[in-house]
Write a structure and sequence with these properties.
Length: 161
């Protein structure tokens, strides 16, 4: 992630440099378009040698500007791709952290389950002994027996790992 962040910062700095270069190129183009008196950037009967040279400068400035615009477009695409990769990596790390936490919780539950089942068996036995004269005790014993039966683990087996 650090490498992606560094790349994005580098691309942003390069973008700022290109924007400054574009401003300079646009200023050169604008000054070339204004030209000397009687100058027509598209040519014409009054076109002198100086005007032809100015027209060449305009063409060069236009070409420079187009090249800078293309470079800015590529740079913007690269920066967007870098930001997308950074977001994807961040999400992957979050998912891995959540999966590790869940795995630890499941392990803790699996470790506690055999002891719980053993204790619930002892409680079921004690409740069953008094269930014949106390209705609720018999109901609780039945509930605990049903819970143990659904656990698919025998009450004295070690943890599944």
């Amino acid at each position: 992630m650090q490498q992606l962040e560094t790349t994005i910062v580098s691309l942003a700095k390069r973008g700022e440099q290109l924007v400054a270069k574009r401003v300079t190129a646009q200023a050169a183009l604008d000054s070339g378009n204004s030209g000397p008196p009687g100058y027509s950037p598209v040519g014409g009967p009054r076109r002198s040698t100086g005007a032809r040279q100015a027209a060449g400068c305009v063409v060069a400035a236009t070409s420079d500007l187009a090249g800078i615009d293309d470079a800015l477009a590529v740079l913007a695409h690269q920066k967007a791709e870098g930001e997308r990769q950074l977001a994807a990596e961040s999400e992957r790390i979050k998912r891995a952290t959540a999966a590790d936490k869940l795995a630890k919780q499941v392990t803790a539950i699996e470790a506690a389950l055999p002891a719980y089942l053993e204790q619930s068996r002892a409680l079921t036995d004690a409740l069953s002994e008094i269930g014949h004269w106390h209705f609720e005790s018999g109901q609780m014993a039945g509930f605990l027996q049903n819970t143990r039966a659904r656990s698919k683990l025998p009450p004295t087996s070690p943890s599944r790992s």
